[in-house]
Sequence to fold (368 residues):
Amino acid sequence: MTVGHICPDATDDITHRAYARVGLLGNPSDGYFGKCISVSVQNFFAEVTLTPNQQMFSSRVTIEPGPSDSTVFESLKTLAVTTAKSGYYGGVRLLRALCFKFYEYCAKRGYDLDERGFTLEYESNIPTQAGLSGSSAIIVAGLKCLMQHYRVYIPLEDQPALVLSCEHDLGIIAGLQDRVIQCYEGVVYMDFSNEEMVRTQGKGLYTRLPETCLPPLHIVYDDNPSDSGKVHADVKQRWERGDADIRLKMSRIAELAERGYKVLSSIGTDEQTGEPMIELGMLMNANFNLRKEMFGAEALGARNVEMIDTARGAGSFAKFTGSGGAAVVLCATDSEEEREAMYADCEAKGFKVCPLVVNPGKPSGGAA
Fold:
C-alpha cells in the first residue's frame, strides 16, 4: 500500500506545537487503571520543525540536537549546572524513538512510505522535570510533523498509545494521561478503569469538558526540579505486587476525579449544588494528600512539599500538576487580595507563578 507520496515541490518546512498539560485531578491513577481530569495549557509548549530534504531523492534523516543535548561544555561546573537543571537527556532520543515507532507502526500496516528524508529540529519552553509533560510534548509535536510529511492518517484515539510506546522504549515510567491531553487538547475527563481496553487497545474512555467550566487557575513551578521517574518507581512496584494500601489509595484518587467531573459538569445547570469551586478545591487538596501518604514526603522532595504548603498557607487549594516540580493552584475566593498574597508568598520562596491559560481543544482533534 503506497501512502504519502510527496510532490516534487513539497519543500516547505512543517512546524507543529504540542502544549504542556496540568493534571487537575486523579493523577497518578491514570497509570493504574484509574480516572483523571487533565488540562492543556498554552503557557508552555514544545515545537518541532521538519524540513524535507532539498534533493527529493535524498533519503537521509537528520535529528538536530537541542540545547539539552549538548556534549560540549565550557567547564565542569557548567556541565553540572546544566545537568542538574535539564537532566542527562535532551530531545534527540525522544525524536529518534518516535521515528522508529512511527516507521514500525506504518510497516505493520503495509504502508509504503515515500523515501524522501528530512531534518527534525525542536525547541521547548516547558520547564524541565517539572511535571508538565515536556518529554511527551516533543514527541506529540514530532508525530504531527511526520504524519503531515508522509500524509499518513493515524486515528486520534490511537495517537496517545503510539506516543507512550516511544517513552516506554526509553524506560520512561508514564501513563496515558499526558499523551491523551496533548493529542486531544482542551479539558478532558479520562476513564482508564477498563483494564482490558487499556492493555489490549491502549486507550480509555474520553469525555471533553468545555473550557468555560474551569475557574481561574494558576501554575506555580520551580527552576530546581526533581526527576519524576524516580518518584514513581517504588509505588509502581508495590501496586504491581498487589499492596492493599496502595491499591485502595489509588482507587480513592480515581474517585476524586470522578467527583470532580460531576462538579464541573454541573456548573450552570439545575444539578449544581453548594459551592462548586470550593468542592473542586477540596478535591484537589485531597488528591495531593493521598499522593503524599503513598509516596511519603521524603520521596516527593522537601522543595516540592514546600511549594504546596506555601500556596495553601495563603488560603488557596493546591496539588501537583504531575509528579512534582509544579503545582496547580485554585484560590478559594478568587479575590485580588488572595491572589496577590499567594503570588507574593510563592515568589518570596523562589517559585515562579503565572495564571493558567487553557489551550482550547479542537473537536476534530486535528493538528494545530
